[in-house]
Every structure is written in C-alpha cells, then in structure tokens.
Write a structure and sequence with these properties.
2 copies of one chain form a homodimer. By secondary structure, chain A is mainly α. Chain A has 10 helices and no strands. Chain A has a domain at 107-250: Tetracycline Repressor, domain 2 (Orthogonal Bundle), CATH 1.10.357.10. The longest helix of chain A is centred in the last third of the chain and has 27 residues, at 202-228. Chain A starts with 55 loop residues before the first helix and ends in a 9-residue tail after the last helix. The relative contact order of chain A is 0.13. Residues 6-10 and 16-51 of chain A have low confidence and may be disordered. Chains A and B meet through α5, α7, α9 and α10 of A and α5, α7, α9 and α10 of B. The structure holds a DNA duplex.
DNA sequence: CCTCATGGTGCACGACGTGCATCTGTGCAC
DNA sequence: GTGCACAGATGCACGTCGTGCACCATGAGG
C-alpha cells in the first residue's frame, strides 16, 4: 500500500542553503500519486499513456507481457541468466518462442523489464510532486515512494534487483533502460524551472545525475544485502539516498592538498 | 603534441566558493602527462599496465586488435552497424572469423573499443594531475587533454564518435564501457582525499557523475556537429564541459516555486 | 635444432533474432 | 447474432552470433 514507513527523523536533504521550500517538506497529505505501475503499455515500450484498457485485447497483452517478464526473472534467479534459453522462458510463460519477440527483443531486456518499469514510475512520481518542493527534494520523495513500493509490496522484487546487480551481462541493458529515461526526466525537471534555467544544461545534467545517484544508492544498499544476507532496513536505503542527494546539493568539488 | 589549444580565456570552473586551489589553475607547465593511449594491452581488457612489448608476439597482438577495431569502425561508418556482419569485419581486418572472438565478444564491443580506450586514458590522465588541483579541476583538465587528443590528432575519431552517438544499438555497450571505469576512477578520486572523505559515497558518486558529465558535454557538442555538419570548435566543447562542471561544483538543487 | 607455449584457424553445434505466411480470437458494424 | 477486418499468436525457414574443441603455425627459450 505504498505506506510511507515510520523510520527515523525524515531529515530531508541537508541542502547547504540553496533550497528553502515551505516548511514541512514531506509529502502533502492529499497528493497521493499512485502511478499504477502496471502500465508499461505495449508495443513501443516508450511508456505511452494509454494505461486504461480499450478492452480484453489490451488486458491480455499486458498480462502476457507480465507473464514473460516474470517467467524470465524467475528462471534467471533460479539458474542464472546465462543458463536460461529463450525456449525455456517461452515454455515457462506458456507462449510460443516466436511470440517472445513480439514483446522483448532479447532475454536481457525481459529480465530487466521490471526495473525499467520502476524507473518509469520514478519519473511519473516526480512529475506529480508539488511544485513547492525543490528539485532534489522532489527527486528524493519520488525515489522513496517508488523504492518503498518496490521493496515492501513485493518480496520477489528484491531478489530480482539482486540478480540484476550480480549478473554482469545485464549491466548494459540496465544502463540503457536508465538512459532511456534521462530525456523524459530532463523534460520533467525543465518543466519546473523558469525558461532560462530550463534551456541550460541543468535539466539534462540533473536528470542523468539523479538517476545515477539512485543507482549508486541502491547499489550500495544491495551490496549490504548481499554481504549480510539479511534484508537491510528501508531506513538504511533512505540514508544512502540522502547521503547521495546531500552531496549533489552541496556541490561535488573538493579542494586539493595545498602541498 | 597534444597542443593545449589557444581558445578563449581559460576560465576554469566557476566553483562558487568551495575550491580555492593555487592561483593559475591551468596545467602546471612541466606536468605533461602523455599516457601513451596506444596501450589497450591485450586479453583481459581491464587495462593492465604492461604496455611495453615483451616481444614481437605482444606487438602483433595489439596490432591485430587495433586492426579489428578499426575495421569494425570503418565498416560501421560506411554501412551502419546493423548492416555489417562479423564475417565482413574479419575479412576487412584480414583475420579468420573465429579469431575475432579472441579479441572481442561482440560486434558492438569492437566498434566502441576506441571510445572505451578514451575513458581509460581519461582516468589515467586524472591520476597524473597535480594534487594541488581540486577534484573537479583535475577532472576538467584530464577531460580536456583526452578530448583534445581525440579530436585533433585523429579526424576519423570524430566520425567514430558520431556513429556511436547515432547508433542506438551501441548505447548499452558504450554505457557499460563507461561504467567499467567508474570504480577505477572512484579509487583514483579517493586517493586524493583524506581517509574520512575517501570512505564516504563521495568518490563513487563523483566518479559516476563526472563520467556522466563528460558524456553529456560530448553529446551536446556532437549534437551541434550533427546539426551544422561542420566540425564545431574545440572551444565550444570546452565551454560545454565547463558549464557541466560548474553546475556540479555549485550544487544541483534548485528551489521550487513558492506558489 | 628441439621443445614448449601461445595464439590463429577450421569445424560443429546450439542459441539468437527476423521476415513471411497463416491461423485464431477480438473489436466492431449491421 | 452474424460476418467482416484486423491485431496478435504461431510455425517455419534462414542467416548470424558466439563458444567449445581439436589442430596447426609461429615465436620464445634453451
């Protein structure tokens, strides 16, 4: 249910001064965004808006897509991505091999599709944030909302992330999925700014950096998960994210050693 | 060589206050780094140190590797990556098809290998920067040195970059090559800092962000090249880079609209 | 000159990915 | 309800990719 977790003092960003949005920086109570993750539409994969069903046809398609994605992930978790053939995936999803390619163009794409959906949801969530929040603040809240949902709603989701993280052959595909959202997020960021700022490098840079930051925070969190075996707390993930965003807000330069 | 170009007032970063390195922030005159790009060693591809020839064997290997890389790039430029088969590449490089896989594991990897080498050189260059420079300052100078060499020394290099930029199927491979350098660069950055800072997220974040920033600056520059057709000036590239680094130094947050 | 190690090559084979023709079920108009 | 038009699923064929294995050729070292 997208519960916003209790957790430690929601410190927000230690933004060193730039931002000074309205007091309680948390989510405005009525602003539940919801996003409906399910979407992923169909053919194009760019993330069209038509989530609502035109009818049974659309529903079946999204169901098939989800079935393939889940089958691919399930098999990848069990046997390792490299050791799974598309034929097996097709069998597991109960479709013809040929049909697989109507939905995904490669095994890797199917396995990563879940995570790619999260990025999509992240951007959507960001768009829905109240305009009073600073850019990084809104990015933070959007990220937390998506990650919260991803980690709590679905236990398999965590296993999926761990597989993606550990399997080397998935890295390119994952990064590509991430990069695919850069432009969309950049537009969303630009929409929050005055024309002057919107026309600069800033939106693009901020979008790319924010997505990279999420990747890093998540990676470090998952690294902890991989080490200890136990599922780390959501609070840890939040602090990782805040650390990253704090650095980005404060500026990345560091003086050299005078000597 | 590696002439440092005349160009407009080498303004360095407008770092808003954090950094305050020694006066003339430019390259210390005697500190030519040199890096010897040629390297790329051989098998592992991780960038081992043994550039020097153990003998004819090593030399032949690097020559073969370069021949394959150049052949792949040449054909990709001429016919488009998708329309080139490995058989053609092998023929162009005058090797057996089977031999191709002794050097690269895919067509895309071969085409991108040139750019990947640049990233490697970038990290090496950064390591060699004087410790007096701030982190972003050193990153800037390293980037300029590599880009300068890449753009001026070799006219084909620019064509290569344009192909990589335009071909969608190369994106994942390119990003993967970039990501492969993140950890190395992060270590190099950490080596410049006190233990406390070195142990934080900062090095990793800064490394990832810097590489992403280079990608963005280069992308925008190449976009200009693609539009106008003409080869844009190196000064433009430098200003793109400075804009990016300036933003990163100043911090990425932007206040929300109060209303 | 002999021997060893390393890299190049040919071969076989399974997996990947796509174009094309066909079949089936849905959406829709009547 | 009936029938038409089309989107999507499937089967088939074909070319490319990528790898394991065995063998040959050449440089390194004695």
């Amino acid at each position: 249910m997208t519960g916003s977790h209790p957790g430690p003092p929601a410190g927000g960003l230690r933004t060193t001064g730039v931002q000074d949005g309205p007091a309680g920086a948390g989510v405005a109570p009525g602003t539940q965004v919801a996003v409906t993750v399910v979407g992923r539409t169909s053919g194009d994969g760019t993330g069209g808006t038509g989530t609502s069903s035109t009818g049974r046809r659309e529903r079946k398609k999204t169901a098939t897509r989800a079935a393939i994605r889940d089958a691919a992930m399930r098999l990848a978790v069990r046997h390792g991505v490299e050791n799974v053939t598309l034929e097996q995936v097709a069998a597991e999803a109960d479709i013809a091999l040929r049909t697989f390619f109507n939905y995904f163009s490669s095994k890797e794409e199917a396995v990563v599709a879940g995570a790619a959906g999260d990025f999509l949801a992240f951007v959507a969530e960001f768009r829905a944030r109240p305009r009073g929040e600073s850019v990084l603040q809104a990015l933070r809240e959007a990220a937390l909302a998506v990650l919260d949902r991803a980690v709590t709603d679905d236990r398999d989701h965590l296993a999926a992330l761990l597989v993606i993280r550990s399997e080397r052959s998935l890295v390119p595909q994952l990064l590509a999925a991430l990069a695919a959202q850069e432009d969309v997020l950049a537009d969303a960021i630009a929409a929050r700014l005055e024309p002057a700022a919107a026309a600069s490098v800033y939106p693009r840079l901020c979008a790319t950096t924010a997505l990279a930051g999420m990747r890093i925070a998540l990676d470090r969190w998952l690294a902890g998960a991989a080490d200890t075996g136990a599922v780390p707390s959501f609070a840890v993930l939040r602090s990782e994210l805040d650390a990253v965003l704090g650095e980005l807000a404060a500026g990345l330069d560091r003086p050299g050693t005078p000597g």
